[in-house]
Amino acid sequence: MGKTIAVLPGDGIGPEVTSGAVRVLETLSQKYGHNFSFVKGNIGGSGYEAEGHPLPESTLSICKKSDAILLGAVGGPKYDTLPAHLRPEKGLLAIRKELELFANLRPVTAFDALLDASPLKRERVTDVDFIIVRELTGGLYFGEPSERRGDVAVDTLVYSEQEIERIVDKAFQLAKTRKQKVTSVDKANVLESSKLWREIVEKVAQKYPEVTLEHVLVDAAAMKLITEPASFDVIVTENMFGDILSDEASVLTGSLGMLPSASLREDKLGLYEPAHGSAPDIAGQNKANPLATIMSAALLLRNSFDLHEEASVIERAVTDTLNSGYHTADLSVNGSNAKRVGTQEMVDQVIKHMAKYMPSSISK
Ligand code: NAD
Ligand code: IPM
Ligand code: MN
């Protein structure tokens, strides 16, 4: 199948991890006889440097013409003093908003090989397999006004019924295909927007009688993610709560470098990126963990292209690579078969482990 993938490497470790994921996708494209083509675009600080804007028009136009988007990460200390509208992060928020990518899925899976890599006890992270469904185009990130007024600053947390309903519905749809449980996270004991959120969740839940629903306040949810993480299936929440809880949840997997994400809308176009940032502290040193981005590429194949077999080739190869002891420096893996490698070598291992699951000659 001929498909175009927009590749937006961004800043910091972004180029290192996206080039790894592109190598993985190229391997699959070749082995399965797909015709993937990759078109590069600038975003974030590199967009500002090359074209004067963190989301150049040219990039947006490449993305609109593509079937899926693979993104690295944006941001870095050298851009922190730019005016707000030129900051790299604004480019990321703008692409999410422009393309109406309202549903951000962040799967949190504890791999067997990494059960001792988390600071939590092994028995606590065993069986962790949940997904955070984060609302991505509303809430505090986009509410108006958002401004400085002398010695006062204001941000606005606003949600419409329709914005809540579409993300909550997505969460219930997903739960139907999984363990049939939705945990809705809000702050309904204080915030008006959360009271509305809870009302809409109750309404949507009526369409899914087979799915169990629980409401948890965000502060308690932060605690429960650590004390009983295996009890979750689908967590649905607003934009900023989802941002914070997903970094917390990544600790269960052993590293922020293990958390992929898919940002989806109603049709098949999706944007796929690791949940982590540009990690300026390790950029350019071949130290970054490429697995979050590689697993994001698997989500791309599954969600945008319906290539389920190819996606599972990636996922199985990642599991096998970790089971063989290979890991990057962010993962605390010990034991007799532990092999610490750099970004590129980790990608090489994933590609090597993919071989046994792929057809040896072109089949389609
Ligand atoms: P970060 O996620 O970049 O890094 C946090 C810590 O995790 C760092 O110690 C980093 O080295 C480590 N880490 C992250 N990803 C890793 C990986 N793949 N392999 C190994 N270690 C990894 O968050 P930060 O330091 O708070 O932010 C740095 C910059 O990234 C900021 O400019 C921020 O705005 C931006 N950011 C961008 C995104 C994105 O593009 N989606 C997400 C978060 C932060
Ligand atoms: C993420 C990031 C972004 C967010 C920033 C960089 C705007 O933290 O993708 O999780 O807050 O959404
Ligand atoms: Mn974040």
UniProtKB/TrEMBL annotation:
PROSITE patterns recorded: IDH_IMDH
Transmembrane segment boundaries: none
Cofactor binding: number and manner: Binds 1 Mg(2+) or Mn(2+) ion per subunit.
Binding positions for substrate per the UniProt entry: R96, R106, R134, D219
Cofactor(s) needed by this chain: Mn(2+); Mg(2+)
Subcellular location: Cytoplasm
Site (Important for catalysis): Y141, K187
Xref: Pfam families: Iso_dh
Residues annotated as binding Mg(2+): D219, D243, D247
InterPro entries: IsoCit/isopropylmalate_DH_CS (IPR019818), IsoPropMal-DH-like_dom (IPR024084), Isopropylmalate_DH (IPR004429)
Isopropylmalate dehydrogenase-like domain mapped to chain residues: 4-350
Catalytic class of the enzyme: oxidoreductase
GO biological process: L-leucine biosynthetic process
GO MF terms, alphabetically ordered: 3-isopropylmalate dehydrogenase activity; magnesium ion binding; NAD binding
Binding site for NAD(+): 76-89, 277-289
Gene3D superfamilies found in the cross-reference section: Isopropylmalate Dehydrogenase
Pathway: Amino-acid biosynthesis; L-leucine biosynthesis; L-leucine from 3-methyl-2-oxobutanoate: step 3/4
Keywords on record: Amino-acid biosynthesis, Branched-chain amino acid biosynthesis, Cytoplasm, Leucine biosynthesis, Magnesium, Manganese, Metal-binding, NAD, Oxidoreductase
Subunit structure: Homodimer.
Family: Belongs to the isocitrate and isopropylmalate dehydrogenases family. LeuB type 1 subfamily.
Role noted for this protein: Catalyzes the oxidation of 3-carboxy-2-hydroxy-4-methylpentanoate (3-isopropylmalate) to 3-carboxy-4-methyl-2-oxopentanoate. The product decarboxylates to 4-methyl-2 oxopentanoate.
This protein's name: 3-isopropylmalate dehydrogenase
Lineage: Bacteria, Bacillati, Bacillota, Bacilli, Bacillales
Gene this protein is translated from: leuB
